[in-house]
Amino acid sequence: MLLRPVRDTEEDAETVRKLAEAAFGASHALKGDTPQAPPTAARAARTRERIRHIVRHDPAGSWLAEDGTGQAVGAAQSHIREGTWGLALLVVLPGTQGKGVGRALLQRTLEYGRGCLRGIICCSRHPAAARVYRQAGFALHPTIRMRGAVDRDRLGTPDGPAVAGTRRDRDLLDSIDRRLRGGAHGPDHAYLMRHHRLVVADDLAGSGYCYLDDDGKVALLGATSRRLATRVLTAALLGAEEGTVVEVQDVTAEQQWAVDVGLRAGLELRAEGFVCFRGMRPPTPYIPSGAFL
What we know:
- It is a single chain.
- With about 290 residues, this protein is an alpha+beta fold.
- It has two domains: about 1-115, Aminopeptidase; about 145-270, 3-Layer(aba) Sandwich (Aminopeptidase).
- The chain contains nine helices and 13 strands.
- The strands form two sheets. Strands 1-2-3-4-5-12-6-11 form an eight-stranded mixed β-sheet, with helices on both faces. Strands 7-8-9-10-13 form a five-stranded antiparallel β-sheet.
- It starts with a strand and ends in a 6-residue tail after the last strand.
């Protein structure tokens, strides 16, 4: 097995994307979930853009594993933002698990973040992944996934103003990030703003933000208080198109405010994976992004 850096090319980005598609498809089948439809051309292009974004900003944090024939069998991506390390992706081709590919890739990404005091990983329910992350020194925090069509009448309206965010809010977003997770997301906000709707609240009571993509999935949320977090999540869910099935993932036990919003919105709750932390307590009120953490 050979490990090599991921290059900032469409070819390498497509290789990583296909590995992730195969690995996540197998994971969904293992959990008994409904098979996902093949990605549209637009979604595939957006995924490649995200992969290249991480490679561009953290070239030493992205790795491909190839077998003796040169076939890609695994990939990993990680990034560092102001001393906070995050594992954005770790996938192994189905049929090649259990051969040390995942551990080798994880080790390379951990070496990249060895100077960081804090680390975050969003982990699936796969027992092998949870075991490896725990052995790497991460604390495992079980999470909830909330999903369903929003019952707007039950959800009600936000308790204050929440408006569409713009690039002018970058300093505000970074300030919230630093307070919650010890490091701003920095350039990741530029990617998120291109592909997600951003809701921002900022008044004398505090500030908060929430990203929601076109599919109704909450991508990242942070706030200075539970009240502001409740406001921006409520506004984001109400902003989803009528009938859209929304999804809020990686909700840890510390985020009971989010559970309350989900229950009022009529969403279904189920246990789903872990968020793993090292060198820090679970930030709250906060909902991480699977890729940008």
